[in-house]
Amino acid sequence: MNSSRRTQLGALLAAALWLSGCATPARQLPPEAAFWAGRIAVQIQSQPAQSLSAAFELQGSATQGELQLLSPIGSTLAQLNWTPENAKLSQGAHQWSGTSLDELTTRLTGTPLPMAALFDWLAGQATAPAGWQVDLSQWAKGRIQAERQSPAPAVQLKLVLER
Fold it and tell me: Rg for the chain (alpha carbons), in Å?
């Protein structure tokens, strides 16, 4: 093999290795994991009042999943991943890890969200964790509303699912 050919092969190998290092790792969720997308709004009746509204993509289950909050132009505002062993929240350059999904949803939204119940609500089951009430009367139209009165402050959660 001549020197020029070896140089070309070496460059090709280097480029392939460099590109493989840039590849995004495959998601850890099984391919049959449930998936939902739409809009989410969280209002917290604190002093001062807090609110969050974003597009979302949610997949997985209460034990293992991923939640992405997206801006109106589709850029990722935050990403929350969880498994039975741990949870991770990424917001821009900031990352937090822990074993408590409540802790990370509080950091993300200002209040702990009932993620296990949320998956039940998406399936049309009116599970009511402590302090929460859910309204699934518009579930068939892709609308879910839930409220928490206690502990204070009161929280309203609204989901509008894409068709």
Answer: 21
The segments of the chain whose pLDDT lies below 50 read: 2-27, 29
Using left for φ > 0, alpha for ψ between -120 and 50, and beta otherwise, residue 110 falls in left
- pLDDT tens for 67-102 read 999 999 999 999 999 999 999 999 999 999 988 899
146 pairs with which residues across the strands? 134, 157
Q: Which domains does the chain have, with CATH numbers?
A: 35-161 (2.50.20.10)
The DSSP 8-state label assigned to residue 136 in this structure reads -
Distance (Å, whole) CA 55 – CA 159: 10
pLDDT in the model for residue 26: 37
With H, G, I as helix, E, B as strand and everything else as coil, classify residue 99: coil
The long-range contacts involving 150-158, CB below 8 angstroms and separated by at least 24 positions, are: 153/44, 153/45, 153/46, 153/47, 153/111, 154/44, 154/45, 155/42, 155/43, 155/44, 155/45, 155/111, 156/41, 156/42, 156/43, 156/45, 157/40, 157/41, 157/42, 157/113, 158/39, 158/40, 158/41, 158/42
pLDDT of res. 99: 82
Global confidence as pTM? 0.78
